[in-house]
Amino acid sequence: MAGDGSFFIFESDDGDLLGDGKTTVSRNIWGYDLESDEATLVCAPADPLAVANRGSKRAAITDDGRYVVLFTGNAWDPADTNSTGSNDGQDFYVKDMDTGTMRWIDFHGDGSELGVNSPYEVAIAGDGSRFVFESYDSILPGESGRRDVYAYDLVAEEAELVSGPVVEERGSRDPSITDDGRYVMFYTGQSFVPEDENSDYDERE
Question: In this predicted structure, what is the pLDDT of residue 189?
Fold first, then answer.
């Protein structure tokens, strides 16, 4: 739910809940405006001709309810030409709920595929400046080869490995991010500081 309580989102496997033909697939991201009492398909642009023909999942919303980040196989941006590949053309998009436009996240900055099949624990900063997620897939240098935490700066348009560079081959998971996007907390088996001598999983900031 948005931090101001104006809008909430959810993922559903029950197809076209509104019956308006805006989606032909089972898994979608939906939203509900608690002020206007209106439901909407979040995982497609506002364009009335746009129809979601591939699934979407793992959504998160900013504090003011304006921006939603989600993971989808739909290619809403003409520059997004990754319809195949190791992750079957799936990428992150950010939807502006005010304008209805969809922004493709070119994670690597070169138009290549993201390389993630299923991200977990997606979270976006309250101000919409950065989002984080967890993945088993190795997509940036310095990762652990297990589960890692990644971020994308939506202002600088830069990808970041949050749980690295690796100091030992142990995974990291369950990220959360502050409203201003500056701090990320996550759970890890790595010992990033000398004081961590317990060889166990700890929370890191």
Answer: 83
